[in-house]
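Entry type: protein chain
Record version: 2
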Amino acid sequence: MTNLIETSAFSFPKSEGRKNQDSILSPRKLEDGYLLAVADGVGSYTGGGTASQIAIEHLRTTITKSQLLDVELLLSDIKGKIIDFSETDNTYAQAATTLTFAFINHEGLRVTHIGDCRVYLKEDNHLIQLTRDHTQFQRFVDDKVFTKKYLEGTKAKSILTTAIAANIEMKADSFFIPIESLPKENKTVTLYIMSDGAHCFWDKRPRFSERTMNSMSQFSNNFKRRIEKLSPVDDYSLVGIVVELA
């Protein structure tokens, strides 16, 4: 059994008057579990915001768990809809989005990830990053071409190596963590998905007080205030869920 305990979500544009390229799916019940997602439209291309909305709307209208777990078909359907959109006008020809979603139930956690949003699990007073960014930065680090220190401040972090678009090869990471391997506190699991405009501020200072870490609402509110105080560098989104797994 999967019991919902708490949820939190926000999604804002980088600045007032600017269109938000991020789209989110707040936790929705799907059969015996909950589905949540964040998509980040690639802002350098016209139509990115609509592409992210298309991806999230497809997840929002997914009817069965079996549809969700057929990842190859699901992503192919989303890509097909984005291609259809890109063909409506030449200015949308390169419309693209990232997409990261998670489904959690009594069996465990399933994650599918394309791009540079991130999934985190809370363990004690820390957040454990589960996904790897599909960026030039991460590829250079993984291939030991450059060190993280050398690449800091370069554009490599903002250059995606995959996304959902008509003219980009789509390479998704998809994995499952069984329930017995999930970090639990009093039978509860805490999960966050963040867009890159949010998690870049977590990277800079990955900590809050114990009281804040143990309350999703306080974490979400304090984290939003931190981003706004330090001035957003991109659209910023977060979706979180606390569930009791029995």
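Comment: The two ends are 5 Å apart (CA to CA).
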